[in-house]
Automatic annotation (TrEMBL):
GO terms for molecular function: hydrolase activity. InterPro entries: AB_hydrolase_1, AB_hydrolase_fold, AB_hydrolase_sf, Epox_hydrolase-like. Keywords: Hydrolase. Transmembrane segments: none annotated. It holds the Pfam family Abhydrolase_1. Residues 30-123 form the AB hydrolase-1 domain. It comes from Bradyrhizobium japonicum. This is Putative epoxide hydrolase EphB. It comes from the Bacteria. One of its GO terms (cellular component) is membrane.
Length: 300
């Protein structure tokens, strides 16, 4: 496992963003992580296309690791669609990054979707696991078949105060269960899990996570400043940025069939099924395949 570079705290406007990665003067690759995982999902992803190592940046999500809000008055929310993307754009502005290859999985894949759709000039190329994940609160209110609803059991659990209290009490147990369900063939050890689970001990983590899922179901309000972005995303905008999407052949998390979202990419789009029992945490379970996709996306 490669060692990370020194962790850095960056004032990204709303929050103090914490990030790690590998420094370089080469092109920038921003890796967007997911919950309940952390930046260590990308610890073995070190793309080098032979033209100079990438400058790899891996920011923590709000409510993970050493991130914190700059004001005590800021709502401890993470509106599911635009907030993380806004944080990434603010981070790029702060670091004077004009363009980057944006990669991610799970929530990070949605972030990559949104950046590519709303800020295509910033996302010069991008790759990510899973498909087109831009939707709307209204679309999320539509009932699914029972077998699909079953996969979202925790979304309904978090809608209750019992669920909030349970997540607060058993945060690490919940995360480990999701890891196992989402990647049923990945035999990770306790040390691997504990390294990532430490990021869940952030004081804002529970509040932000619960708000995220309650907002999806229309049970919590979001910040008004994201309304205009939400309206744009609700229209399900096409993505013109050259894209590579990937899926593990043993992904146990809810995920759409590639045929459903293929037409949402108006630019070049390549879909890759990664075989060998690879689950949801694709960059950790198949780092070489993930790194190759970053390199290939950059050369698209």
């Amino acid at each position: 496992m490669r060692p990370f570079g020194t962790i850095k705290q960056i004032d990204a406007g709303v929050s103090m963003s914490a990030m790690r990665g590998w420094p370089s003067n080469g092109p920038v690759a921003i890796c967007c992580t997911a919950g309940p995982y952390d930046i260590h999902a990308f610890v073995d992803v070190a793309p080098d296309p032979g033209k100079g190592r990438y400058r790899v940046i891996i920011p923590y999500l709000r409510g993970y690791g050493t991130t914190h809000f700059l004001s005590s008055e800021t709502p401890r929310q993470w509106r599911a669609r635009p907030a993380m993307a806004v944080d990434i754009i603010a981070l790029m502005d702060k670091l004077d990054i004009k363009k980057a290859v944006v990669a991610g999985f799970d929530w990070g894949a949605r972030t990559a979707d949104i950046i590519a759709a709303l800020w295509p000039d910033a996302a010069a190329r991008w790759c990510r696991s899973a498909g087109y994940l831009i939707s709307s609160q209204a679309a999320g209110s539509a009932p699914l078949p029972p077998s699909a609803e079953l996969q979202w059991w925790y979304q309904f659990y978090f809608a209750t105060e019992r669920g909030r209290a349970g997540y607060e009490k058993y945060t690490h147990d919940f995360a480990k269960l999701i890891w196992k369900l989402a990647s049923p063939q990945w035999k990770f050890d306790d040390a691997t899990f504990d390294r990532s689970a430490a990021a869940l001990d952030n004081k804002d983590h529970v509040a932000i996570t619960i708000h995220n899922y309650r907002w999806r179901l229309g049970l919590a309000k979001g910040e008004a400043k994201y309304e205009e972005l939400e309206k744009k995303l609700a229209a399900a905008p096409l993505i013109s940025v050259p894209t590579i999407t990937m899926e593990g052949d043993a992904n146990g998390a809810p995920h759409p069939d590639p045929s459903i979202y293929a037409k949402k990419f108006s630019g070049r789009h390549d879909y890759r099924l990664i075989t060998g029992g690879v689950g949801h945490n694709l960059p950790r379970e198949a780092p070489q395949a993930f790194a190759k996709a970053v390199i290939d996306a950059d050369g698209a």
